[in-house]
Amino acid sequence: MDPQDLDSAFWDEIIDWLGGEAALAASAFEHKALVRLRAVASAGDLLRLNFMYGPGGHSLRTTSALAGAGGIADLSDVALLKRIAGSAAWLKALCEGQLAAAAPATSAGGELRIVDSTTIAAPGKAGRYRLHLSYDPYRQRIHDLQLTTMRQGERLDRLALKPGELVLADRGYPKPEGLASLIAKGAEVLVRLTWKSLHLIDETGERLDWAALFAAAAEHGSIDQPVWVARPRGRFQPLKLRLVILPKPAQAAESSRRKARHANRKDQHGSCDPRTLLAADHLILLTSLAPSDVPARALKDLYAVRWQIELAFKRMKSILNLANLPAKNPQLATAWLYAHLLFALIIDAIAPPPGDFSP
Q: Which sequence spans correspond to the domains of the chain?
């Protein structure tokens, strides 16, 4: 499905997939995207205008001209701006409807959910947006999403989860409250760490000796032990989890050391902390999964599945041009973003079932 070919036979399929013209109209009136039928004669036409401006990649002026020439709507680019900006809440609701329709009725447990976010910049000083995504790697589709400003940070418990689901996340996500909230909901977690990510203590209440741990991992091939996530200040019940440290292959370790030195120079620090260079030689994982269920080496393969969400972001940014946000007006920008996300969800739903993937 080509987002720029919205006058094709796919358009009727899109309208049918969203419940038909009557359902679209009811939703558009409910969310005040349509107040009266004048220059835009139907909810389907309004959605087409949003798709032409959003994933279609046309400017407001070009969209206005194409809409007039195609008999879709006769309105100026200024009037079109108001119509599209007023569609933001409606497009968000349509996205939520697609996510709800695609969600399994029950969770059998053991499903993987990859959580991550990406930043989308508006032109000039208009600001940036953060797209939070939960991705289902087996079905190879978006499981949940949330669009926020940059003030809303990355959290493990931000998106929809069910008991028994396993959440994979990178180094920006391990925070005490988020971990505790996720586990309290009955979900499992597997996250990557840096040695400075969390305040970790052993069974005696002492902070971990990272240099000793890295030396032991290098000597024995891995470290697999219980740890407690704590807070040095404030009220927080220590959370028992499992720490796994695995040495990286020599080439990957050398690349990580170069990046660590470069980051240290960029931050204008003095000498690089020896623990940072030792950590660069290792993959550090924190999980709620029991050793009897998933051995240490298997955790590495399981975590490698996380690359699937990176590919999902890359597809949305390159194929759907999600990275090229043209709008400075916040409402217009939000509508543009939700139009892209709705289009991506429809592609997920209509596309043939994916084949097997390899981590």
A: 10-99+326-350, 109-114+157-301
